Amino acid sequence: MTEFVIDGMLAAAGSVDSVPTEKPRTAHTAGAWHKEASPYARRNLRHRRFIVTPGAAADRYLDDLGRQGKAASTRHRYRIYLYLLADMYPWVDIEDLTGEMWRKWVDRICKRVDGGDLDVDTISQRMGIAKKFTRWLEDEQLIPEDPLKRMSVASRKNPVENDSVVWVTAEQTRRMIAVARRDLALHTDPADRYRKILCLGVLAYTGSRRSAVARARIGDVDLLADPPTLTLIEKGGKRITKPLNPNLADLIREASLAGVWNEPKDYLVPPLSTTWAAKRDSKVIWRLVKDVAKDAGVEAHVHALRAAFAVLFLETKPDHIVALKDYLGHSSLETTLIYLRRLDRKKGMEQVFDLEWGEGLTAPMFQSFPVAEKEGFEPSFSPLPVDEPE
């Protein structure tokens, strides 16, 4: 007979106190310290002998995610929403939270801080986090039943069929690269001259995520290899060594000769400040891309450049989709196929160009002229024709 059963029998007979011997772990949030509720507050516990507050349950779940090998950034994102539940109900046992309490928490994390509406993809992601947490609570027998089991999750937008998802064309990418290259003539400091073009070049020629590019160091580049390579830590901590396009390799050599980096630990994309930091916020890459896109008159962000790389790869090498999957660091081929389906959809819709209703709708002087095809992302702008002086 186990010690737990013996203690329960003695407690029922009044021989021993039923105060728990295990002290619950104290949880804390960004805004408050949560003290555990008194063990004397409840005498009718059904299947455990101690109080578990939402803060303590959140800490246990985050520890479990760490043991599963989840990245620190993933655990941090979960922590934000779980600790909000702890802030809302700091002294309530997790088992005593009512359905209305759970609904209020879900409604709160699915709204902006100012009360505005979030994008449907963001809502779906946050509801997924909430449902995973309650499912874990049920599996760990901390609650009798999953309170969010019947709550439906918002359907995410189909990136293939939804034209509001931001994608940039090869021509728009060339325009952004041309804008980034202007800093080479506008600044004198090597880091200021090459910061934007290095950022755009690495994103456009490797299709990497912004977190991987933000963490990359110049020591991760091997220009002596054949071909030159760049080692990046992608999503999930996957370490991927990517061969470099000759255009990107030449840019890195040029920046190195200009004195952009002094040590192997220096960031590949130079920071805005001169202070070296062990950890770097990936938003620095996001801001650089947004600044360049604004100057180029293009709506774009980091993932749009990742998609542009994938589409250009499929257009030039349509039979190598598995290689693209490995290069992008996708765990599933289905994710990579999204780019192929969107490309096929775009080409299918462009069949409208062959329709003809007879004569054109505009005067001859406004009729369009053929545009020369370009390869890769290198900008090549032809000068506008001018009249020769007589």
Summarize, please.
The protein has 390 residues and is mainly alpha-helical. It has helices at 3-13, 54-67, 72-88, 99-109, 120-139, 170-181, 183-186, 190-206, 210-215, 246-257, 283-296, 302-316, 321-328, 333-349; strands at 27-28, 33-34, 221-222, 229-233, 239-243. 46% of the residues lie in helices and 4% in strands.
Relevant terms:
single chain; 390 residues; DNA polymerase, domain 1; 3-stranded antiparallel beta sheet; 46% helix; globular
Radius of gyration: 28 Å
Mind telling me the CATH superfamily name of the largest domain? Intergrase catalytic core
N to C succession of SSEs: HEEHHHHHHHHEEEHHHHH
Q: Classify the beta-strand content into a percent band.
A: under 5%
Task: Give an account of the 3D structure.
With 390 residues, this protein is mainly α. It folds into 2 domains: 23-139, DNA polymerase, domain 1 (Orthogonal Bundle), CATH 1.10.150; 170-350, Orthogonal Bundle (hpI Integrase, Chain A). The chain contains 14 helices and 5 strands. The chain has helices at residues 3-13, 54-67, 72-88, 99-109, 120-139, 170-181, 183-186, 190-206, 210-215, 246-257, 283-296, 302-316, 321-328, 333-349; strands spanning 27-28, 33-34, 221-222, 229-233, 239-243. The strands form 2 sheets. Strands 3-4-5 form a 3-stranded antiparallel beta sheet. Strands 1-2 form a two-stranded antiparallel ribbon. Strand 3 (221-222) and strand 4 form a beta hairpin. Helix 2 runs antiparallel to helix 3 (72-88), helix 8 (190-206) runs antiparallel to helix 10 and helix 8 (190-206) packs across helix 12 (302-316). The longest helix has 20 residues, at 120-139.
